């Protein structure tokens, strides 16, 4: 098992990805699709989705519910409105709705792990409805 060491990544790359994210935040959704960060994993591979599911159950279930059924955080099932790039951005940077706060994950998780979570959430699009 690989233990991600995000701190070891070169500063320049981190700064660049920060700029890219900032630009994306400003640019979306007006030009959605134009400057999407390219996924670094195969989003449809069952291996990728499986890893995302495991992490989701560790880190996200508390707020987003079993299989994304929702709770403190939004429901993440059958969300055809969320693109992989949008998922990557919101998971990286976090989100706030009123008093409810989702923490940013980019300093805790590697980019690959964030894409795995995006892959898992994409897989929930076609999932049969599940009750919490
Ligand atoms: C402490 C609670 C909390 C945790 C933990 C949390 N979230 Fe969230 N999440 C929220 C809140 C609050 C929002 C704000 C959006 C809303 O609920 O309307 C949100 C929003 C989102 C959205 C955007 C939904 C939309 O409608 O645009 C995604 C995607 C998401 N979270 C994924 C995740 C993933 C993946 C994890 C685990 C790595 C996670 N969240 C962990 C609380 C949380």
Q: Quick recap of the structure?
A:
This protein has 132 residues and is mostly helical.
What key phrases describe this protein's structure?
132 residues, mainly alpha, Cytochrome Bc1 Complex, Chain D, domain 2, 5 helices, 2 strands, binds heme C
**Mean pLDDT score:** 83
Question: With helices defined by DSSP (H or I, 4 residues minimum), what is the helix count?
Answer: 5
Percent of residues in helices: 40-55%
Structural class by helix and strand composition: mainly alpha
Instruction: Indicate the CATH architecture of the domain at 43-127.
Output: Orthogonal Bundle
For the sheet with most strands, the description reads:
2 strands, antiparallel
Number of strands: 2
> Which CATH first-tier class of the domain at 43-127 would you pick?
Mainly Alpha
CATH superfamily of the domain at 43-127: Cytochrome c-like domain
Spatial shape: globular
Order of helices and strands: HHHHEEH
In this entry the ligands are: heme C
Protein name: Cytochrome c domain-containing protein
Keywords: Electron transport, Heme, Iron, Metal-binding, Respiratory chain, Signal, Transport
Cofactor: heme c
GO molecular function: electron transfer activity; heme binding; iron ion binding
């Amino acid at each position: 098992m690989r233990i991600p060491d995000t701190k070891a990544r070169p500063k320049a790359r981190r700064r660049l990805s920060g700029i890219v994210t900032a630009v994306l935040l400003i640019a979306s959704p007006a030009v959605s699709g134009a400057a999407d960060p390219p996924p670094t994993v195969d989003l449809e591979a069952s291996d990728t989705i499986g890893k995302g599911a495991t992490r989701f159950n560790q880190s996200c279930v508390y707020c987003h519910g079993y299989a994304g059924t929702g709770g403190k955080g939004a429901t993440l099932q059958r969300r055809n409105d969320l693109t992989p790039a949008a998922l990557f951005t919101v998971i990286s940077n976090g989100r706030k709705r009123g008093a409810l706060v989702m923490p940013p994950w980019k300093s805790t998780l590697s980019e690959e792990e964030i894409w795995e979570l995006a892959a898992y959430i994409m897989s929930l699009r076609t999932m049969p409805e599940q009750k919490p």
